[in-house]
Amino acid sequence: MCGLYGWIKGQDSPLDARALAYLTSALAIANVSRGDDSTGLASYRQGEDGPTVSKAARSAPQYVCEHQAEIHQACRGGAGWLMGHTRSMTKGAVTQENAHPFAIGNIVGAHNGTVNNEDALRGQLTHAANVPTCDSAALFALAAQEGMKATLAQLVGQANLTWAVAPYADICLYQDTLHGLAVAYVPRWKLVLWSSEDTAVQRACALLGLPVVYDKTGKAPGYFMAIPADKIVTFKPSHLGEDLTWIEEAAPTQGRYAPLGSYPAISGYGGLDTSDTPK
Asked: Beta strand pairing status for 191-195 and 231-235?
């Protein structure tokens, strides 16, 4: 279990750098319960050639204390989006190299989940030797090579994702269940926020004096919204206005587990015989 968090803001959002840095720090720390092996963030500012990545094998509170300069730099004028990650190691050693987000080729992204067919994905890479050893890195490396939709079509495992592709102005979100990401919108700030936990969004926004609720029809200035499962959801800065819109593209995976009949025989037990399994 890892934590995803971040934001993307509209082109004329009134939020200043100090407020964004405060919000970012609060989101990171609120996700420490999801993983404390490493913390990282990637950010993009308008006019830059590509995103900036900062990460370390440190817990979120440690990272926030030690990397305030990077957080404030990411939130300065022209800031477009920021994605963050707190890692709970499952595959691959706890190192800075294996910390998320990953910037590989034309893609930068972070992953919460497990890639159960990592070897099959790595086997297709043309530059596998340069890819970090954790399973998520293999997913993003293949996405950089083949595209995310084609990669998800091959994936066996769990996938909750945030990423951006060159020229990096837009943010993509993906969840393989309806509860993989909590996504909220604050119209007055022209800001979309997300986190693996809805309470992280609520706590971070509350520190800025803004309640975020589930009832869009109420008077609260911020509200949670449902994004579909098994679809790539793309947010563009130009679509963040009084009425929020986004782009959806279906991208189902192979599921969390391989088909029962595809498992190898288990020595001494004759393997898994599915020939008599009711259809």
From this structure: unpaired
Give the pLDDT of the chain (279 residues) as one tens digit per residue: 899 999 999 988 999 999 999 999 999 999 999 999 999 999 999 889 999 999 999 999 999 999 999 999 999 988 999 999 999 988 888 999 999 999 999 999 999 999 999 999 999 999 888 899 999 999 999 999 999 999 999 999 999 999 999 999 999 999 998 789 999 999 999 999 999 999 999 999 998 888 888 876 666 789 999 999 999 999 999 999 888 999 999 999 998 775 555 445 444 444 444 444 444
Q: State the burial class of residue 103 (Cβ atoms within 10 Å of its Cβ: 0-12, 13-18, 19+).
A: middle
CA distances from 108 to 14, 167, 257 (A): 26, 11, 26
Query: By the 8 A CB rule, do 149 and 139 touch?
Result: no
Residue whose C-alpha is closest to residue 22's, from 34, 7, 12, 11? 7
**How far apart are the C-alpha atoms of 208 and 221, rounded to whole Å?**
12
List beta partners, residue 54.
41
- Is 254 in contact with 154 (CB distance < 8 Å)? yes
Distance CA 17, CA 271 (A): 59
Q: Record the pTM.
A: 0.89
Alpha-carbon distance of 27 to 82, in angstroms, equals 11
Give strand pairing partners of 139: none
- Distance (Å, whole) CA 33 – CA 51: 27
